User: Fold these one by one.
Assistant:
Number 1:
Amino acid sequence: MDQGNTAADSPVRTEPLVVVAAVVVQDGRLLVVSKKAAPGIFYLPGGKPDAGEDALGTLTREFEEELGVRPLEPRLLADVESIAALEGVPMRMTVFEALLSGTPSPAAELAHMRWVSGDEEGLHLAPAVRDHVLPLLRRKGVLA
């Protein structure tokens, strides 16, 4: 008799979730976005690579799909290890710095887009942004 899947049958994630994102800073403020699935949590724009897609390909595709712009002059900023805010699993995020090809506008799975200093009251940032990216940007002196 089939009992269906049990927790013991479920695959266990051994590798961290892979994400590619970019820091876009204009006038001392960081571009952050939230997803429709969690509109109150803000992330860096970006996403998960498709099969066989490299980091810059992922970044370009995600920016075009979600913001309607292309990342310009992307350069590697850091690799960040944290917990994915939505999935609650270990995550490895490759973070680039980039400029934008135009004016971004949220589309696809995005709920909101904001330019922030990171100090706004009530702003809920994903752990990777709050604990790793913001301190790095502050040390570099690029945030207002």
Note: The chain has one domain: 16-137.
Number 2:
Amino acid sequence: MRPGETAEQRLSEALRARALEVEPSPDALPRIRTRTAERHHRGWATIGAAAAAATAMAAGVAVFVPDRGAPPLPPAASSSADPPALLSREPGPPPPATPPAGGGPATVELPVYFTRNGKLYREFHALRLTADTDEGRIAAAVAESLHGDAYDPDYDTLWPGGVTVRGVSIDGGTVTVELGDVGAWPREETRPLAVQQLLYTVSAASTYTSVKKATRIRIVVDGGPAETPRQAPYADVLGPVWVIDPRYDERVGQRFTVHLAGVVFEGTVNLRIRGAGGKVVVEQVVHLSAGAPSLGEARVPVNLPPGRYTVEAFFVSVKDGSVQGVDDHDVTVG
């Protein structure tokens, strides 16, 4: 020990010398940032859960906040020019059609888009196919969308009731849809969204075929010239928050998964489930896999006793704290 040097000073010098000998890993900084972000994320989630629990206890409401949910899906790719309209239930090859036991047309579950309050919302429908081909699947999804046969009574279509799908043809990644009997074409002020309803349905349904992704969609109306409109970005046309599963009026088991999607700031949405008399039985902040302008998703496991419930999803305005973009589905448990 040097004259006048304390033990603490000597220890400090030894530690500094040892630190200079350490060679940091090339990925050290990214890993530190990731761990820091995860702690920050968990901290806010804990604060949100605690706040929800405190509010509910004051009101005499039971709150279900699971320790952890199912891992969210990877962020959906998005671009302002040509967003892929996906959101499939499970990744993988196109699901096979199910032939009925007594014979007749096969059925397959396909994504279908509808409209509500000037935005697009999507459901999965089990559709009968006249032929289980790529063209047949897309045609069935388009017909279901344009006729507006949604499960949720809040969803509708902007297309006239008599419209028919005369045919669908596929050339590589180009899908051409021929419509007939359009008659009163959608009103001028709603026409842009009506076209997007069609485009998003074709794009989503194509992921359930060997096409996988429609790179170009052409529309022929009543034998006129083919038009090639472009899909609008997610943030321009999709509902800000929506409940995918369980679907409206569906019967589920006591353990089920709520599948949410949305295009919201920082991917933060709220899940609320009401039981008899409107009593809140689940109140939870959910972080989607991506924030606006990308489309994010999340799956939240829930365990509830038998009964009738309303599953609500919404976001809270950063401007004034008001509840915005509510989408709700009534479901039966048990």
Note: The helical segments are 7-20, 28-59, 134-147, 191-206, 234-237.
